[in-house]
Amino acid sequence: MDYFNLKFHNTTIKNEIFAGISLFMAMSYILVVCPSMLSETGMDYNGVFLATVFVSGITTIISAFYTKLPIAFAPGLGLAGMFVGLALGPAQVHWSVLLLATYVGGIVVCAFVRFGVYDKIMEIMDVGFRRIIMSGVGLALFLYGFSTLGLLEKKRGIYTIGEIKWFPLLICIISLCAMYYLKKYNFKGYILGGLVIAYIMSICGDFYSSFQNTGTSISEYFSKIFDISYSIRDIKNVMLSFPYIVDVFTEKEGFVLFVNAVFVFAMGHFFDAIGTNTSSFDAINNNIDTRVKETISLKRAINADGVGGIISGLMGTSGVTTYAESLVGVVSGGKTGITAITTGCLFLLSFFFAPLFTSMPTYVAAPALIYVGLSLVLRFKEFEKSNKILFVFGLLLITYIGVTFNTGHAVLYGLIAYTLIKILIYKEKPVRKWWIILIFATIHIWLNYIV
405-441: per-residue pLDDT in tens? Predict the structure, then answer.
């Protein structure tokens, strides 16, 4: 039985596996970044690492069977940033309270789907707006790829010119050339091939540096890569670490902070998931009936995001969400849930080979991010150019997403501006209940800038 409809999507298991490996390599950096960020709040590093491994793997595999889409999940950097900001900010919310807020926030996201909020928002998002969001995510990946090479640096939310690091740049150029020629000769796994070449070269460079500095031998170097310095028991340091419920609900100040955290997480998670999932799905560019894909696949993907938040809170990490790097898998040829299953299994296997995966420099993913990002940005040329005001607005919104990587804000506020332009300037009939997005914007502003 062809559960994932491989024939319909004109793909093969081999293509899907190649795409899944490429996707994992593009987002494996989260295995290092997330524990490093959350450990600043006082959480146990090894515990958060194991939570990240298991949550990413389990959620991605569950989603693969539930949605049949080539999308992967991991703790979102934006949600992790919110988590750390609330923990270390003026309010000093304890991390255990934030884990409970992550758990409840996931339930709220599922409720948004269950009670039709998602459906109303998707009625407002037309093809043009979705193309803008997809191109914006592409620009974000493109710029992030250059930042991993050191050519760009992000300071206070603004990219500036960085210092050229010749070795990573050389690896990136060779990898991109390899991708070009592999694709030219119709090799399906051309992105994976380029990433493997980049990874091998990075290992050789790192070994040479270690040999020059400390005289490390090959055997010593690889024994260090495969050395495991943690135990499965470490996850108990963060798993099910909710505070006493009485303490949260009896103190007025603590309760207000908890509720604020719940809705900050839920709204950020919900709108970010909408932007990323619609971009990933549209990039597949197949001929699935519009009604079916909107009401089933995408709706299930947003629901999976909510379930991921619930599991994250239980396991002991910040909210799991769909990763924009899923587009690497899509452009690599991934069209079904088999791509996601491959990625999820690799996340789970990283428990046994963590030093191997975590030793992968972030710049290894740069060629894939640059290639995929550029290909998605170029799709904006399909936007209707006769509506000049909307075209300029689209360029501005794409630039905003690219610079901030904040698809949640882009969907929330960009959709309001996009709808008002169409109503007030082009005199189009408004979509029924479009004002629902205004309510969300008001709540978001209240929680983030007033409370």
Answer: 777 788 888 888 888 888 888 777 777 777 777 777 7
Question: What are the φ/ψ torsions at residue 82 (nearest 5 degrees)?
Answer: -60, -45
What would the two tokens of residue 12 be? 């093969």
Nearest Cα neighbor of 338 from 17, 43, 25, 55 is 17
- Alpha helices (H) in 226-358, listed in sequence order: 245-250, 252-284, 290-292, 299-315, 326-331, 337-349, 354-358
Give the orientation angle of helix 407-424 with respect to helix 252-284, to 10 degrees.
70
- Residues 93 and 91: their CA atoms lie apart, in Å, by 6
Residue with tokens 């991390």: 95
Under 8 Å CB-to-CB from 124, ≥6 apart: which residues? Answer: 415, 419, 431, 434, 437
Helix (H) or strand (E) holding 154: strand 152-155
Rounded CA separation 236/48 (Å)? 10
Per residue in 181-193, pLDDT tens?
Answer: 888 887 777 888 8
d(CA 340, CA 360): 21
What does each C-alpha distance from 210 to 78, 95, 206, 216, 301 come to in angstroms? 34, 37, 6, 6, 44
Please provide the distance, in angstroms rounded to a whole number, between the alpha carbons at the two ends of the chain. Answer: 54
Q: Write b or e for each residue in 436-446: b if 16 or more Cβ atoms lie within 10 A of its Cβ, otherwise e.
A: bbeebbeebee
Tokens representing 195 are: 């990433």
Amino acid code (one letter) for 150: G
**Residue for token digits 């699935």?**
288
Beta bridge partners of 160: 153
